[in-house]
Amino acid sequence: MLSALRKKHVAKRIIWVLAIIIIPAFVLWGAGNLGKRRRGLATIGFVGERKVTVEDFLEYRRGVQLVFLLQFYDNKEELDKIFEDRMLLNKLAWDNIVMLEEAKKRKVRVTNEEVVDFVTSQRLFNSNGTFDERFYNYMLRRNLNMNPRTFEEEIRRQLKISKLKESVIKPITVSEEEVRQFYALEFEKGIISYVILERDKYKSQVQVSQQEIEDYYVKFKNEFKILQKSSFQYIEFPYKDADEKAALIETIKEALEGLKTKAGGFDSIAKDFNKETQETGLFSIENLPPKLNWSGDVYRLIFTMEIGQMRVIIDEGAEGNIYILRIKEKLPARLMTEKEALPLIKEMFIKGKSEKIARDNAIKLYGIIKNKKNSLEEAALSFGLTTNKTEFIARADYLEEVGEAYDILDSIFKKEVGVISHPFETRKGFMLARLDAFQKIDEKKLEEEKEEYRKKVLTSKKAQALQKWFTNISKDAQLIVDPRRL
User: Fold this and answer.
1) Residue 7 shares a structural domain with residue 155
2) Which residue, among 135, 116, 117, 115, has the nearest Cα to 125 in the 3D structure?
3) If you count Cβ atoms within 10 Å of the first and of the last residue's Cβ in the chain, which end, N or C, has fewer?
4) Cβ contacts of residue 330 below 8 Å, gap of 6+?
5) Is residue 142 included in any domain, yes or no?
């Protein structure tokens, strides 16, 4: 490949000082990192009959990182944010494995010339609009720790994926009617009158006997559980950059080693570092401490620890915190007693029965209006309900007492003016509505904005097509390891 690169016109042999500052000794995640995290793990998934190993996964994740690096090399803040999102990188790496296996089946080819054209067009390797071979070699060797052949083969893979995706979306077109429908969904407006039958307003009509509550508990008592709870003390050590983080880790290691020969334990560490010991209350996996934004995996690990046991938690970012924690209290999971469960069962019955009353009343109200015995306003009044009326609103507008109701408004807008809708279920209860006026789209404005909306429709159709296609080619792909553990 380099022989081909040398045929290109190259700029003066100038190293970009700015780029070197922006990307200081950039290191892609390597086998050492993942090997330590997943020691003993050989296979992480299957694509058809092909086994995907840790080494395979690392290669493909490196390709994902390279794509982002070429795109955001001059935006360190954005690049750091992306590279810290391990879940995103892992998902994209797995997606690439699946797609490249499909590219292999379809015999997708990328020529050397296509690779050369892509590499030499990248802003990172260009000076005054011309490819700088010396800088290219310097960046690969010094900052990316790879040789040109390895880099160019990673680029070949990414180009195969691009070609594969392009073959899926190339046939997609957009008709005039599709543009009109899309535009109408956004800009058609209507005035509606509606009533809400809130389930909570019927709670006073609900009667729940003590016997049915107790019978329910006897039948389903194993469903009423109190989850395991723990609490811990912790000491927080903030750091501002990778160097400070590394130094702090070593210092904490020494402090923990010193506990073997020093009295005072956990509290002595806080004292030595002039830190305050903080403490969580008892919490379960469904009610985690709000101050500590740790992943569920970390907390699941904490729930396996015994009282008095200590552990170090380290943030993954170049800026963050290191924590030393010690389990203070631990309560095992157990079934609720009858006394604890009965109030919950009673509330469940009240909610269910009040919802049924609201639904039944909505159906009765709908029947009265549909049979033209009363208007919406008259029927609502007979049920003790107030009728709300909007100004002109679009499908995406907020509906008072309902919230976002795109699907409901879309259904109402398809009715004729003056026709009552069937009852809709909402977060508060049930809703009936009537379309009072309807405003069609502005044809002149549509003509002016047609091309803009054609692009929006095309983008949406392409995204849907790619999603459907990827779902289809993923049927025989299985990741057997939680991506959060990679």
Assistant:
1) yes
2) 135
3) N
4) 228, 229, 230, 231, 305, 306, 307
5) yes
